[in-house]
Amino acid sequence: MSNTERISFDDLKRDVIDRGICDMCRGCVSFCSADSLHALTVKDNKPAYLNEDACLKCGICYMICPNTEDLEDALKSKYDYQLPIGRHLAVESLRTKNPELRPICTDGGMVTSFLHYLLESGYIHGAVVSRKVGLWNNQPMIAMNLWDLMEGAGSSMAVSSTVEDLGDLTTYVPTMLAIRSLRASDMTRIAFVGTPCQIKTLRKMQLLRIVPAHIVRITIGLFCYENFNFTIEGRKKLEEKIKTSLDKVVKINVKDDFIVKLDDGSSVHIDLDELGDLVRPECIPCTDFSCYTADISVGGLGSPDGYTTTMIRNRQAQTLVEEAIANGYLEKGTETGEDKLVADIEKMAWRKYNRGKDKQKQLGIPL
């Protein structure tokens, strides 16, 4: 096969970036085999060539992208994917038993306390999470202890400071950048918390044995209907919907609608279909709500306030969750049964799946 026939970043640009379906997981930029030659960069918040002549045409960027068909069948087979939410052994409402964590967590603090248990038990050396730096600012980080985890608690709807133009904010956090930093680390066991597209990229890297994906021992996927771009105009529109200044916002969350909690203790609920102008366009073609490739999937959907809906997908994850409960890190809620939780997740998953397929059809993407 000649070089002109080999897969390169040009193919990724044609099939994904130019089509407007790049999720900006940054896997292609972070794990380019020509990284030392500075082949790729991020320009205008999209992957781009920095030095086209340096591209090795190895195809890695294309194969690990969550929006290419390469390795899709292998993933679906490995994780026994079935519509609409994938394989799972149990679905429960869980919350932290640490009363100091409950006020600062987005939902029930399950992820924070579960990771705390994994760190203290020695199962992992660190966890890739996002750190909250103000309501509208987020950074990827590697948590090594409870204090690090507390920095990340409640940050899933904050904003990455790596966005070049902070006039246009986004709720998407490029946690793959933290994975990249681990290539020179002594860590051999880590946890990874991310969105469906981020974890799919990681799983493709594991199939290809790309360093350092092999050190990820457990993944926690976030239920994800969509992420948001808070442009200057978008922020004005959001203020109109909540009828107050964004300065009054103390927390934002997504369950079956968009929830804005204000500093006076009140909450404003907005239907997700009313947020069209704020949604990242790249999220619309995505069909994976529940993050089927994760070991555990979590979110607030279905559970009462103060609890995390936790979908346990395999025996390893089930054993670890049970250990965290037995050792006093987590506790179960009893208000909502498993059938109701599954029904709520499936309803939202079908909603996202059908929306994504409709958008893919509009874009001419093979279904």
Q: Describe it for me?
A:
By secondary structure, the chain is α+β, with helices and mostly antiparallel strands. The protein folds into two domains: 68 residues, Alpha-Beta Plaits, CATH 3.30.70.20; 281 residues. The chain has eleven helices and 15 strands. The strands form four sheets. An eight-stranded mixed sheet has the order 5-4-7-8-13-14-3-15, with helices on both faces. Strands 10-11-12 form a three-stranded antiparallel sheet, with no helix packed on it. Helix 8 links the parallel strand 7 and strand 8. The longest helix has 26 residues. About 4% of the residues have low confidence.
Rg over CA atoms, rounded to whole Å, is 20 Å
The major pleated sheet works out as:
8 strands, mixed
Q: What is the 3D form?
A: globular
Strand content: 15-25%
Tell me the number of strands.
15
Can you count the helices?
A: 11
- Helix and strand run: HHEEHHEHEEHEHEHEEHEEEEEHEH
How far is the first residue's CA from the last residue's CA?
Answer: 29 Å
Spatially, the strands of the biggest sheet line up as: 5-4-7-8-13-14-3-15
Give the number of domains. Answer: 2
Average pLDDT figure: 85
Class by alpha and beta content = alpha+beta
Uncertain regions spanning at least 5 consecutive residues: 156-171
Helical residues, percent: 25-40%
